[in-house]
Design brief:
Number of strands: 10
Number of helices: 14
Radius of gyration: 20 Å
Helix content: 40-55%
Bound molecules: 5-amino-5-deoxy-1-O-phosphono-D-mannitol
Largest sheet: 5 strands, parallel
Oligomer: single chain
Strand order of the largest sheet: 2-1-3-4-5
Shape: globular
Distance between the termini: 31 Å
Structural class: alpha/beta
Amino acid sequence: DKGTYPFYMLKEVDEQPVVMRKIVQEYLNEDGVPVIDQDLLETMKKADRLYIIGAGTSYHAGLVGARMFERLTKVPTQVFISSEFAYEQPIMSERPFFIFLTQSGETADSREVLVNIKKQGWPSLTITNVPKSTLSREASYTLLLHAGPEIAVASTKAYTAQVAVQAVLAKAFGMARNQQEAVDFDLKQQLGIVAVGMQAIVDSKDQLESIASRYLATPRNAFYIGRGIDWSVALESALKLKEISYVQAEGFASGELKHGTIALIESKTPVIGIITQDRTAGLTRSNLQEVVSRGASVLTIVSKHLAQADDTIVLPDVDPLLTPLLSVVPAQLLAYYTSLGKGLDVDKPRNLAKSVTVQ
Ligand code: M6R
């Protein structure tokens, strides 16, 4: 039931702070130690490499997850689009462990991978929002997202839940591998900060609605750019915008723009820079300068400690690994208001279904 909300998507965006608290409640004990099946962790400890598999938004959540697993566990981690992995399996490590990310648990491309890797005798975990879904039943282990039903085709709270649950698992697995960085990572406190920060962002809807109407209502093209984890969020932000507002949007690695794609920048093309990481902030800012001088309309989504006077959207500060949980929220709302402003059916964009059961 959408209650007083005009669309499910807006309701689901608004639910994200509650979902973060729910994940803390379900997965972290009083001392902030993850409560995760020991058998799952024992199996993961035997792996020499993690393979994360997903489609669409779930793939984008996996890109963020891989950075967390590598930093907190020191186990090499690769992310694959399921429809690619299914038909061209790369050369594998000796002891792979598979993590399937799927909100619905029914995506045919992801299932195809699961079927193939099971035949090869490899263990797997499905992280899903739907208990007893196909990929949950067929994998060796399941972790639930606890996000509550997601109805809008555009995935929002499932993305942030996937990122948060991967953070829990990365901390648990890192601790099981005696990694000091995982022990020191105060995820419980940080997810509390995230929940408060998300609330502040969803409370600034008016600002986001006016930015959407000013910059995104008319252009044909738009770009989200960032480096590292910000690039991963740029990909998800662009997908949100294109799937519900039909603006041709691309998520781009900031440093790669000048190697060709900058030719697409015209007068007033919106370019939205995501800037949350100390190491890359200056570089992304200079990439934004390059597009300003070609006439682009530049907007920024920036962590507070990196913010400058003319930044567009300022995010509360949080651990650098968790910034996607905040930076994606304004992008979700910009997509929402762009779609709404065009009078489109936000929840049911053309040509799309909530779960994709064809290959
Ligand atoms: O249910 P899944 O997470 O496996 O779905 C995968 C994609 O179809 C899905 O994330 C899709 O990209 C989103 N609906 C986009 O918002």
